[in-house]
Amino acid sequence: MKAEDSTYVELMIALNRAGIRWLLIGRQAVAQYGAPVQTMDLDLWADPEPENVRRLVETAQALGFEDSHATWNVSSRELLMIYKDRQKVDIFLIRTFTNLDGKTIEFEKAYRSRNVAESAGDSLKVSLPSLADLRLLKRMRDSEKDREDLRYLVLIGKGKT
Amino acid sequence: MKRIAPKRRAMPSLPTEDEARLANIAWFSRLTPTQKIQSIEQDLRFRERLAGFRIRKVTREG
After folding, report:
1. Alpha helix segments (H runs only) across A7-138
2. Whole-angstrom distance, CA of residue A137 vs CA of residue A101
3. Domains of chain A by residue range
4. A113-130 pLDDT, tens per residue?
5. Which residues of chain A have a CB within 8 Å of the CB of B43?
6. How many other C-beta atoms lie within 10 A of the C-beta of residue B23?
7. Distance from C-alpha of A109 to C-alpha of A101, rounded to nearest angstrom
8. At a CB cut-off of 8 Å and minimum separation 6, what does A65 contact?
9. ipTM of the predicted structure?
10. Residue contact B7–A9, C-beta within 8 A
């Protein structure tokens, strides 16, 4: 780990070390695929399987994150909002997302077809949904931002074919 | 007058866009001006770190 690591990097490295199954979603994922967009928080999608969630909570607590509900009782929550220093992370604990088009996407399937962003000599590895899955996730809401992200993802996908 | 359609969302159990924004406002408003700048700097540093990363397909578990 580098001295100047951001809280996000610290969290992602720790999650990987603990063998936790997670995916980077939201605008940070869209940006990682090459879209010139900005965001101020981090959205993760974690396997909601209890053991995965237990280890996730343990890891976040060990790093000094605080739970927005202050209880760390996550048994009935689909969204865990955690904070540390000046950074905020939203973690979705959902088995299956259903988007506005009625299309579903399961964590297991998304994780199996994930991509990994990495760089030689860097301990950080970032798991991302495939472009197709990220497009499905971007249809969860119909905001202007989501539509813009979706347009970028469609164009990026065309560039790869 | 233009009618604004209600915002659509797929999963009612999750926060609406405005609820998510309110949570962001609540968090951001707790930061001091210096912390707000540091928050933005941390975010930029994160993007900088990932800027050189290459994306590869995972072909098998692990």
Report:
1. 7-17, 26-32, 50-62, 107-112, 131-137
2. 11
3. 7-155
4. 999 999 999 999 999 999
5. 6, 8, 39-40, 87
6. 17
7. 18
8. A11, A82, A83, A84, A89
9. 0.82
10. no
A83 closest CB neighbour out of B27, B40, B61: B27
DSSP symbol at B7: P
Contact A31, A38 (CB under 8 A): yes
Q: Residue B48 in contact with residue A121, Cβ under 8 Å?
A: no
Distances (CA, A) of A137 to A92, A109, A119: 12, 13, 26
Asked if the A7-155 domain carries CATH number 1.10.3720.10, the reply is: no
Q: pLDDT tens across A7-66, in order?
A: 999 999 999 999 999 999 999 999 999 999 988 889 999 999 999 999 999 999 999 999
For the stretch A102-133, what's the b/e string if a residue is b when 16 or more beta carbons lie within 10 angstroms of its beta carbon? eeebebeebbeebbebbeeeeebebbbbbbeb
Give, as one character, the DSSP assignment of residue B9: B
Residues 2-41 of B with CB under 8 A from A: 7-11, 13-15, 17, 20, 23-24, 27-28, 31, 35-36, 38-40
Amino acid residing at A17: R
Instruction: Tell me the C-alpha distance between A141 and B44, whole Å.
Output: 26
Do residue A32 and residue B53 have CB atoms under 8 angstroms apart? yes
- pTM, rounded to two decimals: 0.90
